[in-house]
Amino acid sequence: xxxxxxxxxxxxxxxxxxxxxxxxxxxxxxxxxxxxxxxxxxxxxxxxxxxxxxxxxxxxxxxxxxxxxxxxxxxxxxxxxxxxxxxxxxxxxxxxxxxxxxxxxxxxxxxxxxxxxxxxxxxxxxxxxxxxxxxxxxxxxxxxxxxxxxxxxxxxxxxxxxxxxxxxxxxxxxxxxxxxx
Length: 181
Description:
mainly alpha, 65% helix, globular, 7 helices, 0% strand
């Protein structure tokens, strides 16, 4: 894995995330989550140790965008990356449907987890906290963003594989030769 390329891609994803590139609604509905999408990409393809470190870096950069409590996104994206690295050998990673499903589940996990943990962290004893109070807009924004990101993700993954050698790991069209022969 080439860390300079990863740093450039992470910087680009952060810039697109902060600029709300591709957002359809001013209310927050239907926007692309670029940083979690990049975390899923790097959780799927490089070696396991590099994948987990890449997800940790993506989560830290997501925290620096100023959304939620500091550290929550780092923990959530690291957990999502760990889960993806555990199951990635049991799925067909090059299938756009598998990629879309993993991106959808990761975005839902991160956005809802961030909202729940932020509400719990900011909750005080003088305010009553109900379980579903104020979550209807959050669930709508989360699901619309997750669906939109899942639709865009396979195309972004295909574009990332066009720069294949710069990524530092084999893409879907590369085959690893058996070194035991």
